[in-house]
Every structure is written in C-alpha cells, then in structure tokens.
Specification:
homodimer, DNA-binding, alpha+beta, three-stranded antiparallel sheet, Arc Repressor Mutant, subunit A, elongated, about 120 residues
Chain lengths: ~120, ~120
Amino acid sequence: MGRRTAELVLGAPDDALCCGVVTTAPLSESDAKRLAGILGALADPVRLRLLSIVAAQHEVCSCDLEAPLAKSQPTISHHTKVLAEAGLLVGEKRGRWVWWRIEPARLAEVRQALGA
Amino acid sequence: MGRRTAELVLGAPDDALCCGVVTTAPLSESDAKRLAGILGALADPVRLRLLSIVAAQHEVCSCDLEAPLAKSQPTISHHTKVLAEAGLLVGEKRGRWVWWRIEPARLAEVRQALGA
DNA sequence: CTTACGGATTGACATCCATCGATTGGTCGA
DNA sequence: TCGACCAATCGATGGATGTCAATCCGTAAG
C-alpha cells in the first residue's frame, strides 16, 4: 500500500444547510435548530482561533495546535471534533497524525444564511 | 412633548467588531472572545427565529413575539436583551410597547468576520 | 515483541445558560 | 385614582458545555 493511509473523513455531515436566510423570511424551527448548531460550534474563542490557525496554514496537525492554543490534548481533540461534526473542519489521518483543513464552503453557507 | 417617547436605545454597543477575518490570519485572543460573544448570541434557535421574524416585518413589538415563538414573556425579554447587547437588535420604547428592529450592519460585520 | 508517541475516549467537575413563576416598575384608559 | 396591560428583573432549576487527569487505542520505530 502507499505511504499515506486511506483518507479518513472524520465527521463530514452531508446535510447541506441550504435553509432560509435569516433576513429574508421567518425561519422554520428545524432550520433554526440546525443553523444554531453550527453557530454554536463557532461561538467559542478557542475554536475560532483554532479555525483561524488552520486557515492560515492550509493544513495543521493536531499536535501543533496544543501550544498556540494553550490547551490540553483532550481539549484540543474535543474542539476539533465539534468543528468537524459541524462540517467546518475536515480531518485526514496520516499515520499517527491527523491533519486538519478548513471547509470553506461550509463557512460560506453560514455567511449566506446570515444575510443577503 | 410629542406622541412618541424619546428614542431609548436599549443596549447599543458602539464597539465596532472590526477585528481580523477568521480565514485570513490567526485571531487574537481578545478578537476571538468578542466575536465568539456575538456568535453566541446568534447560536440559539429561538433567537434566530426571533431575528428572522423581526427582519421580515421591519419592526415588531415584544408582545407580538410571544405567540409565534411559543415562549413565556420573561424568556422573550431575556432573548431580546441578549440580541440587543450583541448589537444585533435595537429597541425603541413607545408608550407601553417596545419596538424592535434589526441592525443589518452588525450582521454584515459578522459575515465579514467569518470570511472574505 | 516491546516501546514510544499521537490521538480519542471516559469520567468528573465547575460554570454557563435557557426557561419559567412571581414580582416589580411604567404607562395608558376609564 | 384605580385597574389593566406591557415589559424588565429576580430566583430557582434542569440541562448543556469547557476543561483536564487518567486511560485506552493505533501506529511507527527499535
């Protein structure tokens, strides 16, 4: 087999949040719930900084997040999981390491849902 | 005096969230905290639906939110306060009623902070 | 095989938060 | 002045959540 392990998509929700726009018409209860979930994933200082670090470097290993974020390894793992489940981050396991990268489309969806 | 009470701006933060963009460079700790605060105000199904209802009607009285949101009066009051403190909603007290309207600029700031 | 290392999971703990009943404060109509 | 109505505040409560130590699981190196 090749050197790199097969791509392991860690928590990739295929449900596109193609719901109504907040400023257009009243949101349905389910749409509001889904959008709130993704916004909840974003509403944390550590996760926002994590995202910005990954975005600035295109690809980042989990082990390289512990230091700049000044958080323990389980805490980093917890936050990456939350962001991945929200579809904002995608992780690829290569050997012992997991490399994370941003999902720009997901962020664009959130921006669109937030207004015109 | 006139018929309408003097404009009472209820919780209007003048601090512009002109911080870095998430996808551009690593966020500072303070910028991340401030942005997370506003996103936290948005990360609730009831508040998202509240926002969308106000946006759809340009101006809404608090008493007209209780029914469509199916929440008690103290709960509605709580949520409008949170949104107002985040700068997303502006309230004007006229007589016994409080009329709420959206602050589109604030929402635009959030969208911009969330990506290019 | 054994060791070392990166990462996920579990459990515990403290804190925050959404919700509502009860109360209080204003404002208008009778 | 009194009673009705709208809204804010207070206090309590149940649930969600960020954090870390301890542990477990895979993988690569020796």
